[in-house]
Amino acid sequence: MTLPSPLRGIIPPLPTPLLAPDKLDVEGLDRLIGYVLAGGVHGLFLLGSTGEGPSLSPRLRRELIRHACRITRGRVPVLTGITDTSAEESVSLAQFAADAGADAVVVAAPCYFRTTQVELLEHIRRLVPRLTLPVLLYNIPIFTGNAFEIPTVMEAAKLPGVIGFKDSSGDMIAYHRMRLALSGRPGFSLLVGSEELLADAVLLGGHGSVAGGANLDPRLYVDLYEAAMAGKLAEVRLLHDRVLRLATGIYRVGSYGAGFLKGIKCALSLMGICGEALAEPYVPLDGEHREHIRARLEEMGLLGVTVR
Amino acid sequence: MTLPSPLRGIIPPLPTPLLAPDKLDVEGLDRLIGYVLAGGVHGLFLLGSTGEGPSLSPRLRRELIRHACRITRGRVPVLTGITDTSAEESVSLAQFAADAGADAVVVAAPCYFRTTQVELLEHIRRLVPRLTLPVLLYNIPIFTGNAFEIPTVMEAAKLPGVIGFKDSSGDMIAYHRMRLALSGRPGFSLLVGSEELLADAVLLGGHGSVAGGANLDPRLYVDLYEAAMAGKLAEVRLLHDRVLRLATGIYRVGSYGAGFLKGIKCALSLMGICGEALAEPYVPLDGEHREHIRARLEEMGLLGVTVR
Amino acid sequence: MTLPSPLRGIIPPLPTPLLAPDKLDVEGLDRLIGYVLAGGVHGLFLLGSTGEGPSLSPRLRRELIRHACRITRGRVPVLTGITDTSAEESVSLAQFAADAGADAVVVAAPCYFRTTQVELLEHIRRLVPRLTLPVLLYNIPIFTGNAFEIPTVMEAAKLPGVIGFKDSSGDMIAYHRMRLALSGRPGFSLLVGSEELLADAVLLGGHGSVAGGANLDPRLYVDLYEAAMAGKLAEVRLLHDRVLRLATGIYRVGSYGAGFLKGIKCALSLMGICGEALAEPYVPLDGEHREHIRARLEEMGLLGVTVR
Amino acid sequence: MTLPSPLRGIIPPLPTPLLAPDKLDVEGLDRLIGYVLAGGVHGLFLLGSTGEGPSLSPRLRRELIRHACRITRGRVPVLTGITDTSAEESVSLAQFAADAGADAVVVAAPCYFRTTQVELLEHIRRLVPRLTLPVLLYNIPIFTGNAFEIPTVMEAAKLPGVIGFKDSSGDMIAYHRMRLALSGRPGFSLLVGSEELLADAVLLGGHGSVAGGANLDPRLYVDLYEAAMAGKLAEVRLLHDRVLRLATGIYRVGSYGAGFLKGIKCALSLMGICGEALAEPYVPLDGEHREHIRARLEEMGLLGVTVR
Fold first, then answer.
1. Window 123-142 of B, Cβ < 8 Å to D
2. Whole-angstrom Cα distance, residue B35 to residue D68?
3. Residues in Cβ contact with A263 at an 8 Å cutoff, skipping those fewer than 6 apart
4. What is the distance in angstroms between the Cα of D112 and the nearest Cα belonging to chain C?
5. Touch D-C: 3+ C-beta pairs under 8 A
6. Which one is catalytic: D23, D35, D112, D138?
7. Do C87 and D55 touch (CB under 8 A)?
8. Which of B101, C68, D13, D162 has its CA 20 to 30 A from that of B22?
9. Mean pLDDT, 10 residues at a time, over chain A (308 residues)?
């Protein structure tokens, strides 16, 4: 499908439903995609951090892409993360995604090794021409250890095929400065990774969010996006606070390296959408924390949702 | 072969000779292994950080293991890194290494996602039983983002098959404290990753070093190890300073994310051992820095070495 | 004077005009206070980071407080930072400020030593009763090395005399979460330190900003604050972008440890308001960077301002 | 007194005995100095981090210097920290120390504000000529937030009056590299702050240590220093392990921001040397942790020591 220019709206980073650490839950995936599409989301992002992309085996990544593209049937754009320590695997995965009908790939900075900004830009310049799909750059320094700085993004934005930047740094100052720097490129998309910053971003000129919580309550995030686009400030404040409550209630349970991931999978399981298996190095939340999540879902009216 | 208990000595982290970012330089590998074995090293460590292991494609990793095991012919133990963001790929690579005749695998903390110490230990407990070869744990928080803390190592050391710990944190206080904590386990190997700390480690009871510089001047590192083992302090000081000069002269050229890697590959190329191609995200040093490396090698008498 | 409840609006962190590293520029101070008050600011914050408070000698800090209170004559509230590595000096300075007519003190976490959150809260609980003026807490982890986390602020907010929290962490997610957590305390002020986040903060329910740029163009910041309060989104976007341009143009000149401070002092000097001397460990910008600042001021129409 | 060149040996960073957060325990100070001098230490370092220097009021700092110089009576060199966020207070304190008979001052990088290496060097160049006593530079980035890098130290070492460098970074690679870089300046002292690295440092050519544990068992540290100087490796290993046990047992009790400080004060109190009061932001260890310290002291035979 033709991607909107700029790409905008709510694009949930889809968790990968698993029956076991290396076994895809195809039925769960079907329910999950149906649920978020019914909520009005504007695209899907596969194999991001929330999708445990880097943790999945090369085979499972491809299975997921194939099934997700099949299930989605072009109703919204499908973006696919290709993060891997090996650029060869990234390129191969990107080609698979193109063949399977995905609409764009999402390119993070190298993980494992550290790069200077010069090295990062040169790497992107060598990598992008090897990718046949449009490219969304992805800044997630907490996991990759390498941040995209503004001048690097400005240069990378000139490369043919690079259509946008997703910032999951949580640094709203950098986001605002980048938006201003990009103001001469109206077709270039600037998305924010942190849903707690979705309201800020869209009110002040950003294009949307790759919001993990949109997997749990897609309509809430779509409503917030639309209210912000329409400048309905009172409604924005109300919905923004609901987003904050969801994120605080679900992602910050216990003391874990990736609470957001554990919380979302646990919630989806309690909502009857998919199983809560996680790929290594993680395991599902324990019983006590599971009950905490259940209580939060109940408060938010998310337990009784009918999926499809 | 039967591994020594504890594993000890100088075990160079072998760079992966490449003709291109995804093409193994088999002849260079042959020369490199011959060169370091002639220098008396006590083992080889494939696919570590210096070996660009995480950056290589799954196929190339296996090619390297196969050729390195073939070339080494059991003369010294061959250890193989299995670092990958996907535990499934790590397990698969470990099985390949076992089948190819490697002697041990080297297991780092998960890279990409962050783990608490509890999560890290549980992950190791699930992973180790899936590996058929002995396991050396590998602490390199600068690249993985996850550090092994002492209580975690103490627990992991009790797992069958876990034979040692390689610390590349550069934190000598932690190393000393760990050695003391491990004093009841005399067969458990405690290696230091940083060659600048080899003298400290061995003088005060450690077992050796995975020293990158041992690829350039293996005899120097073996001599230093032996002098430290023998308590010849005057000789240790002399050789320690030569190691410092080599490390400073070769690894800290220019401003790069992984100067040690670029410097070693450049030096090996200038010494006629193998090509200087690097896997993504890196490229070889530029001409000016190459000349700097050449001058350092000349000073250290390493340019005229006859390889084999 | 009675402080508004909650304290709100634009409260510039006043630079300390100096004739030399340890010599107050009293005339410059007079012009500076006159200038920002004419711009409509809602208060003054002395001896913050922008005021070089920690760098000034104990004597100079007191001189500044005395003169600033005298010049301000109660037209707006005067807040005084009391940051020092010694709590005794902080308490003494707070008493001086109370006697001189200041309206509140601003209390940062301890600098130099690190505290856990438990230690930080207990320290605040011992410190606050020793202060006679109302207390605004101040989160600036980049300089103190100690961050206030949300539960700590929630507990501290219950102490008699604690009237608000100024967050200069730049972490907008934390700011939003804190605002939500504080929603039951409508008299408690939540200010944002980073002017690049002023629009976000006020649009979504925050109370204002301690904006360094308000020293250079007070009217711009007051206008932005008022537009955000009134929900005039189009105007907010326009003014927000002007703030971003000012901050990027003035604070990020050259490569310095505290570019914002050097940039503001240089700009004030070029605008004829006060000298550009800085206290140790800093010195004024060099000529080239000074010309850069001049060009930015010219673009923004700030060079020709008539001061009073 | 004339300082040895280079300054060497064991120089304990003296805790400041307090009866209350702002009240000096003069008798405790007398006992403490007597105790460490009887143990053979080679100097005293007042107002370091272990001395809570930055936390003490300006008045108390001066009281301590005056009494410590009086009690020491020139038997060993007295070094005085002058760390403060205000360079003016540092200079004033240095002058007081000179007048009181101290032998050197210890100059850390600025705390609170961040400096680039260029700014740090320029600051040191302006500061040193204002100090009348010899200067030992002090690298403690964990507290100041600013590290001395090797080229900066090399330049600062050329300034008249700068006699040495104390590295409390814990980075032994940097220490070794700095020692090598300084090899042309045999009179320049290179001390290590971390006692766990004392053996490494002295065995490989360093000059000694500012070891906190030397306040508890001065003879142990002096013996280790002398054994390392004499190259008695077996003895070094034995004593090094005792130092590690002391440091692990006393400094890592509970979860605190400055466990070393709390542990040492608690131990000194249990040993009957001085009270355990601490300056803000800290308070003494609680009862449970106190019992833990008591048990460790008993194991190490330090409870029954007769002081003087």
1. none
2. 61
3. A250, A251, A252, A253, A285, A293
4. 5
5. yes
6. D138
7. yes
8. B101
9. 93 98 98 98 98 98 98 98 98 98 98 97 98 98 97 98 98 98 96 98 98 98 98 98 96 87 97 96 95 96 74
Handedness of CA A266, A267, A269, A270 (dihedral sign): positive
Question: Which residues are within 8 A (CB) of A132 and not within 5 positions of it... i.e. 6 or more apart?
Answer: A94, A95, A98
Q: Is the pLDDT of residue B25 over 60?
A: yes
Q: Cα dist. D143→B10, D139, D169, D215 in Å?
A: 36, 9, 10, 21
Q: Do chains C and B touch (3 or more CB pairs under 8 A)?
A: no
Per the CB < 8 A criterion, the answer to whether A224 and A230 are in contact is: no
User: Positive or negative CA dihedral for B235, B238, B244, B246?
Assistant: negative
pLDDT digits (tens, 9 = 90+) for A192-214: 999 999 999 999 999 999 999 99
Share of chain C above pLDDT 90, in %: 95
A302: burial class by Cβ within 10 Å (0-12, 13-18, 19+)? middle
pLDDT tens digit sequence for B194-221: 999 999 999 999 999 999 999 999 999 9
Kindly report the three-state secondary structure assignment for every residue of A7-38.
CCEECCECCCCEEECCEECHHHHHHHHHHHHH
pLDDT digits (tens, 9 = 90+) for B59-71: 999 999 999 999 9
In the structure, how many helices (H) and strands (E) does chain C have?
A: 12, 10
Nearest CA in chain C to D109: C281
Sort out which chain A residues have CB atoms less than 8 A from C245's CB and list them. 180
| Ranges under pLDDT 70 in chain D | 305-308
Q: Can A251 be counted among the known catalytic residues? A: no
**CB within 8 Å: D204 and B205:** no
Q: Identify residue D30 by its one-letter amino acid code.
A: D
Q: Is C137 helix (H, G, I), strand (E, B) or coil?
A: strand
The residue annotated as part of the active site, out of C35, C166, C175, C251, is C166
Among D35, D166, D175, D221, the one annotated catalytic: D166
For the segment C75-113, what is each residue's pLDDT rounded down to a tens digit?
Answer: 999 999 999 999 999 999 999 999 999 999 999 999 999
Which site among B85, B116, B125 would you substitute to test the A interface, given the most A Cβ atoms closer than 10 Å to its Cβ?
A: B85
Minimal C-alpha gap between A272 and chain B (Å)? 26
Residues 248-287 in C contacting D (C-alpha not used; CB under 8 Å): 255-258, 261, 279-283
Residue B114 token pair: 């962050």
Q: What residues of chain D, 55 to 84, have a C-beta less than 8 Å from chain C?
A: 55-60, 83-84
The pLDDT assigned to A256 comes to 86
Please count the other Cβ atoms lying within 10 Å of the Cβ belonging to residue A114: 18
Q: CB distance from C194 to chain A under 8 Å? A: yes
Report the C-alpha gap between A306 and D115 in whole angstroms: 58
From 3.90.1490.10, 3.40.50.300, 2.40.170.10, 3.20.20.70, which CATH number describes the A9-231 domain?
A: 3.20.20.70
Within 13 Å and on the Cβ side, how many CA atoms surround A121?
14
Residue C197, pLDDT score: 98
D241 touches chain B (CB under 8 A): yes
Give the per-residue pLDDT at A257.
84
C110 shares contact with chain D (CB less than 8 Å): yes
Residue B138 is a catalytic residue: yes
Confidence of residue B284 (pLDDT cuts 50, 70, 90): very high
Instruction: Label the pairing between strands B189-192 and B208-209.
Output: parallel
Among D178, D233, D242, the residue to mutate for chain B (most B Cβ within 10 A) = D233
pTM of the complete model: 0.97
Mean pLDDT score of chain D: 96
> What is each CA distance from A66 to A12, A60, A69, B232, D175, in whole angstroms?
18, 10, 5, 64, 54
Among the partner-chain residues B88, B110, B113, the one whose CB lies closest to the CB of A22 is B88
